[in-house]
Amino acid sequence: MTEPVLFTRNLCKRFGALEASSDVSLDLRPGEIHALIGPNGAGKSTLIKQLAGNISPDSGSVWFHGQDVTGLDTIARARLGLARTFQISALAMQHTVLQNVILGALGQRQAALRFFGNIMKNKALRAESEQVLDRVGLLEHASTLTGELSHGQRRLLEVAVALSLRPKAFLMDEPMAGLGADGSARMTGFLDGLRREAPILLVEHDMDAVFTLADRISVLVYGQIIATGTVSEIRENPEVQRAYLGDGGLE
Ligand SMILES: Nc1ncnc2c1ncn2[C@@H]1O[C@H](COP(=O)(O)OP(=O)(O)OP(=O)(O)O)[C@@H](O)[C@H]1O
């Protein structure tokens, strides 16, 4: 079997008496969208934060591209190619759309930001950033101030900034949140193609999007993964149905 790009082994994280991650082992394989679903408070965000390096597990490990990254912080993991989007918006609202992408690309290359004016004249960097904007459909807004974008456009810009990091894997925390039907459809279409470039671990409450996109789904309940499988395996799993009954089931 192909080596997973990202995986955890036996992650445990407690907040006082609460076990937010309980012996969590999951993997993200090349080319896939692996959705992580579960009721509110199940521990999805806590898990993503341990993958991204925002918080440390009490025990267990996180591996990325064959390397144990458990001791690395978010910046070190991002430099290795692990891109996280959406929970924390890092967009600079007072800068233009293009400037945000260029800043993102620079972060990856560890360049100093002191020479921002000169950097904006760097033709290769500019062309590369414009190309990324074109991919997410925001090229016509390159000179728009980021603060003037709609919510949906900002979300696409966040993907563009993440793309400029040339990631090897994406961690996405509720990319559909706050998007209307059109915005969700557009984001779904975009993520669908993106998996070929880098696999995506997707935390999402929008079940339509999850069922459309996911190659595999893992279900987290009270900090534990109770099932991992394809969309139909998960929909038909009685334990998953029981866990979701209070939420109206998996529809
Ligand atoms: N820093 C913290 N200190 C104490 N408890 C926390 C902390 N972060 C999360 N928790 C608790 O851990 C549990 C899991 O929270 P988490 O945010 O990971 O769940 P979630 O599945 O992402 O929920 P949602 O779907 O509502 O975003 C919750 O009971 C939450 O209150």
Q: What is the name of the CATH superfamily of the largest domain?
A: P-loop containing nucleotide triphosphate hydrolases
Bound heterogens, unique: adenosine-5'-triphosphate
CATH hierarchy: architecture of the largest domain: 3-Layer(aba) Sandwich
Order of helices and strands: EEEEHEEHEHHHHEHEHEEHH
- The radius of gyration computed from the alpha-carbon positions, rounded to a whole number of angstroms, is 18 Å
Mean pLDDT: 88
Q: What is the top-level CATH class of the largest domain?
A: Alpha Beta
Low-confidence stretches: none
Largest sheet: 6 strands, mixed
Lateral strand order in the biggest sheet: 7-8-9-4-10-11
What is the SS-derived class? alpha/beta
Q: How many alpha or pi helices?
A: 10
Count of all domains: 2
According to DSSP, the number of beta strands is 11
- Per the CATH scheme, the topology name of the largest domain is Rossmann fold
Helicity range: 25-40%
Query: How much of the residues is beta strand, in percent?
Result: 15-25%
Indicate the overall shape: globular
Q: What gap, in angstroms, lies between the N and C termini?
A: 32 Å
Short description:
The protein has 251 residues and is of the alpha/beta class. Helices cover 38% and strands 23% of the residues. It has helices spanning 44-52, 74-80, 97-109, 116-119, 123-136, 151-164, 181-194, 207-213, 231-236, 238-244; strands at residues 6-15, 18-24, 27-28, 33-37, 59-64, 67-68, 82-85, 169-173, 200-203, 216-221, 224-229.
